[in-house]
Design brief:
The chain has 421 residues and is mainly α. It is 78% helix and 1% strand. Strands 1-2 form a two-stranded antiparallel sheet. Keywords: Membrane, Phosphate transport, Transmembrane, Transmembrane helix, Transport.
C-alpha cells in the first residue's frame, strides 16, 4: 500500500504513456489488418481508409465499446492471493502494457497480422507466472486461445470461399456480369448492414440504454439492412459500363460495382473493431487507474472512464496512420491478389464469423478470422493463388505471439519492481 501511496501519480502517468503506446500498436496492426482488404483490393485509398477509421472506430468504441471493467478484464489471471500487495498487480499491468506494445510494434514493422488479444493474454500470463505464481493463471483460457488458431481461420475461410462461389454463380459466370452485379449487389449490402447491426445489438448498446430482446434485435437489424441496401443501390446504379477497361479485364465493369460496396464493409469493420477491441486492448490501463484511484483495492469493479476510451481510440488511429501500411500490404496484397469482389467477400465472411462466434461462445480472433477469410478467397482460385511463404510467416507469428508477450512481460515486471520497490 505504501508504494501505491508514494508513487500513485507516477504509475498513472506511466499507464497512460504505455497505454497510448499499446493502442498505437493496435492501430498499426489490428485496425490495419481490418482495413487491409479494402485498401489492398483498390476499392478505397489509404487516405479514405483513415477517414473511415477515425469516424467509425470512435463511434464503435464510444457507442458499443466496453462499459464496465473488472480489475482483470480478460479473466486470464486470479489476483486474489495478492490483495494485500496491490503494487504487484500495478507492476504486472504496466509490464503487460509495455510488453504488448513492443510485440505489436515488432509484428507491425515486419508486416505480420497478429492478434492483439493474444498478445495481451501472453503478457498477462508471463507476469502472473513470475509475479503471483503459475496457479494464478486460468489455464483453461489458454486452451481456448490455442483452439482459436485453428477454429478462426477455418470458419472465416469456409464462409469467404462460399461467398466467392456465390458471386461466380450469380455474377461472373453469367452472360451479363455487370447487369447481374447491379441486380444482386443490394442483397449483399443488405447482409452487411444486417450482420453488423446484429453484432452491435447482441453486444448491447449499454451507453444508449438500449436492451432489446432477440426478436426485437432481428427486426431492427432487418430494417437497418434494408436501409443500407437502399443507400448501396443509390451508389451502385451510378456505375457505368467501361468497355475500354473490359477489353483489358473482362470483369472490370462488374468489379466496379463492388467498389462502393467495400465502403460499407470498411465502415462496418472499423465500427466492429472499435466496439470489440478498443475496450479489451485498454483493459490493463483501466486496471491500473482503477487500483490507484481506489487506494489499492485489487478486486473492485468500476466503470470504464470515457477519457480512457477516447485515449484508446486516438492511439489506434495514430498507429494506423503511421505504421499501418505494412500490415495492410500483407493482408491486402501479399497473401493473394484481391479485387473489390474478393475483398468484399473476405470482409463479409469475417463479419459473419464474428456474429456466429459471439452467439455461440466459440473462441475466435478477429485477426485470424480475417486472414482465414482472405485465404478462403485465394483457395477459391486454387492453391497456386496463395503465397505460401507469406502464409508460413503469418502462422509462425501467431505461434510466437503468446511466448513473446510472456517473456517480455517478465522482463519488464522485474525491471519495474526493481525501480519502485
Amino acid at each position: 500500500m505504501e508504494i501505491i501511496a508514494s508513487h500513485g501519480t507516477i504509475f498513472v502517468i506511466l499507464a497512460v504513456v504505455f497505454g497510448l503506446f499499446m493502442t498505437w500498436g493496435i492501430g498499426a496492426n489490428d485496425l490495419a489488418n481490418a482495413m487491409g482488404t479494402s485498401v489492398g483490393s483498390g476499392a478505397i485509398t489509404i487516405k479514405r481508409a483513415i477517414i473511415i477509421a477515425i469516424i467509425f472506430e470512435f463511434a464503435g468504441a464510444v457507442l458499443a465499446g466496453g462499459h464496465v471493467t473488472g480489475t482483470i478484464r480478460s479473466g486470464i489471471i486470479d489476483p486474489a492471493s495478492i490483495i494485500n500487495s496491490p503494487e504487484i498487480l500495478v507492476f504486472g499491468m504496466l509490464a503487460s502494457l509495455l510488453a504488448t506494445a513492443f510485440w505489436l510494434m515488432i509484428a507491425s514493422w515486419k508486416g505480420w497480422p497478429v492478434s492483439t488479444t493474444h498478445s495481451i493474454i501472453g503478457a498477462l500470463v508471463g507476469f502472473a507466472i513470475v509475479g503471483i505464481g503459475p496457479e494464478a493463471v486460468k489455464w483453461g483460457k489458454i486452451g481456448s486461445v490455442v483452439a482459436s488458431w485453428v477454429i478462426s481461420p477455418i470458419m472465416g475461410g469456409t464462409i469467404s470461399f462460399l461467398l466467392v462461389m456465390s458471386t461466380r454463380k450469380l455474377i461472373f459466370d453469367t452472360d451479363q456480369p455487370l447487369r447481374n452485379a447491379k441486380c444482386y449487389a443490394p442483397a449483399y449490402v443488405f447482409v452487411v448492414g444486417f450482420i453488423i447491426s446484429l453484432v452491435t445489438l447482441f453486444k448491447g448498446l449499454t451507453h444508449l440504454n438500449m436492451d432489446l430482446t432477440i426478436t426485437q434485435s432481428f427486426i431492427v437489424a432487418i430494417m437497418f439492412g434494408l436501409l443500407t441496401a437502399f443507400i448501396g443501390w443509390l451508389f451502385i446504379r451510378r456505375v457505368k459500363e467501361d468497355r475500354a477497361a473490359d477489353r483489358d479485364f473482362h470483369f472490370a465493369s462488374a468489379e466496379k460495382v463492388f467498389a462502393p460496396m467495400m465502403l460499407f464493409t470498411a465502415c462496418a469493420m472499423a465500427f466492429a473493431h472499435g466496439s470489440n477491441d478498443v475496450a479489451n486492448g485498454i483493459g490493463p490501463l483501466a486496471a491500473v487507474v482503477s487500483i490507484i484511484s481506489s487506494g489499492g483495492d485489487v478486486m473492485q469493479t468500476s466503470p470504464l472512464p470515457l477519457w480512457i476510451l477516447l485515449l484508446g481510440g486516438g492511439g489506434i488511429v495514430l498507429g494506423l496512420v503511421t505504421l499501418g501500411y505494412r500490415v495492410m500490404l500483407t493482408v491486402g496484397r501479399k497473401i493473394t491478389e484481391l479485387t473489390p469482389s474478393r475483398g468484399f467477400c473476405a470482409q463479409l465472411a469475417a463479419a459473419a464469423t464474428v456474429v456466429i462466434a459471439s452467439r455461440t461462445g466459440l473462441p475466435v480472433s478477429t485477426t485470424h478470422i480475417l486472414v482465414g477469410a482472405v485465404l478462403g478467397v485465394g483457395l477459391a482460385r486454387g492453391m497456386g493463388a496463395i503465397d505460401l511463404r507469406v502464409l508460413l510467416d503469418i502462422v509462425i507469428s501467431w505461434l510466437v505471439t503468446l511466448p513473446a508477450g510472456a517473456f517480455m512481460a517478465m522482463f519488464f515486471y522485474f525491471t519495474l519492481k526493481g525501480i519502485f520497490s
